[in-house]
Design brief:
Blueprint: E1 26-32, E2 45-47, H1 50-55, H2 60-66, H3 71-80, E3 87-93, H4 98-102, H5 109-115, E4 122-126, H6 143-162, E5 168-172, E6 190-191, E7 194-197, E8 199-200, H7 209-218, E9 239-240, H8 254-259, E10 265-266, E11 275-276, E12 282-283, H9 292-310, H10 327-344, E13 353-358, H11 364-367, E14 372-377
Parallel strand pairs: 1-3, 1-4, 4-5, 5-7
Antiparallel strand pairs: 2-3, 6-12, 8-9, 10-11, 13-14
């Protein structure tokens, strides 16, 4: 025992702190004509810095030699995340359509999600179509993107509900014709997990998906990518995906582009630089998940709830005298998830509030199923601010 005296023991875990969640982990499938020496086509690779990309042969020289923007997309991502982060990358041959990339049966984007073991929260496709490729642009952009949006929605829904891996998707509205009136109205479809961006580069038909993913990765889940208080996008010039239309040129058409559900760069009077118009997804405004932020928030709730309830699968519990869920079990079902979500999300401002409800009268014994309702109250957003301005005779 040693000499008698006073001893101390440090206690830990008393303050209710939580481990940081991987909200900024992103995935990017990149079309290329051929693979660099260090990374084969169809192979998933986690990058944690720009130097990791250079190590596998994705460099500025590679882009120049192949006439693509692959390294550039990765550089844009890490440029928005202060040089650090987690980006899962897969290269595919650029004759592969975006729709085929997003098709779960082809094991391209689907394989990337699986290989990350569920870490990816938001993913996208960076296009580098061959020069000989002639897109069909009847509805204002490459029709392949509209087909890909349908496939991407199917994939993310399948993974969210059947594999418990909820994600959101960013697609480039490549080959924009410059005619806003020709664009498909995304508000009339139901792809609430997919965002289509018209943010492009000068003299290019491709979109800046890596840049947008980097911005998303740098923001908390409830934050709108178009929030002015975020600050300007930090680009010297901003073009749409026709390669010629500047953000300064769309004053008369920006409302049309916005009302049709696209994301694109704009200028704002009184502020220097460029900003995104909003974070809307390819669905109607009555859809609870027409906002990327709302989608990211509910995805995080799902991941937390899955982790909490997984330990309860096949667990036994005490019944009430009526043969229903006993008070102790009922309290645990509600309290455990409320504690987790409120500690991780509500306390940090990602949700306004969170409650769990379990009907105590449900017949869990007879049906073998327990129904739990999770009610997440999102943050509110100032969208259109209408100010009534005028004179008054007195202030009384």
């Amino acid at each position: 025992m040693g000499v008698p005296g006073v001893t101390f023991k440090y206690l830990n875990g008393q303050l209710g702190g939580t481990n940081p969640t991987a909200d900024g982990v992103c995935g990017l499938v990149i079309q290329v004509p051929e693979a660099p020496e260090g990374l084969a086509l169809g192979v998933s690779k986690a990058l944690y810095s720009l130097s990791d990309a250079e190590t596998v042969g994705l460099t500025a020289a590679y882009d120049q030699a192949n006439g693509v923007i692959a390294y550039g997309e990765i550089r844009d991502f890490f440029g928005k995340t202060s040089g650090k982060g987690e980006l899962w990358v897969m290269l595919v041959v650029n004759t592969t359509s975006v729709a085929d990339i997003c098709d779960a049966q082809n094991l391209l984007a689907a394989k990337l999600l699986a290989d990350s073991q569920g870490r990816i929260r938001v993913w996208g496709v960076a296009t580098n179509r061959p020069a000989a490729y002639e897109p069909t642009t009847t509805n204002g952009i490459d029709h392949d993107i509209y087909a890909a949006a349908n496939k991407a929605q199917e994939l993310r829904t399948n993974y969210a509900l059947n594999r418990y891996i909820p994600t959101r998707v960013v697609l480039p509205g490549r080959a924009f014709t410059g005619e806003a009136s020709a664009l498909l109205d995304l508000k009339q479809i139901a792809n609430n997990g997919v965002l289509i961006s018209l943010h492009g580069r000068k003299n290019s038909k491709e979109g800046m998906v890596g840049f947008l993913l980097g911005l998303i990765a740098s923001l908390p889940v409830q934050r709108n990518i178009g929030r002015v208080r975020n600050g300007a996008l930090g680009v010297e010039e901003a073009y749409l995906t026709d390669g010629v239309t500047r953000a300064e040129d769309i004053f008369n058409t920006k409302d049309v582009l916005h009302d049709k559900g696209y994301v694109f760069p704009i200028t704002r009077v009184g502020r220097a630089g460029y900003y995104y118009n909003d974070d809307q997804t390819a669905t109607g405004n009555t859809d609870d998940y027409h906002s990327l932020a709302n989608g990211r928030v509910i995805d995080k709730v799902q991941r937390i709830a899955y982790d909490v309830y997984l330990d309860s699968v096949n667990d036994d519990f005490e019944l009430s005298l009526k043969g229903k869920i006993g008070p102790a079990a009922l309290k645990a079902l509600q309290g455990d998830v409320e504690d987790a979500v409120n500690t991780i999300m509500a306390s940090s401002g990602e949700l306004s509030s969170f409650r769990c409800y379990v009907d105590p009268e449900q017949d869990t014994i007879g049906t073998g199923k327990t129904v739990i309702r999770l009610n997440a109250q999102p943050r509110g957003y100032f969208k259109e601010i209408e100010v009534e301005l005028g004179f008054v005779k007195t202030q009384e």
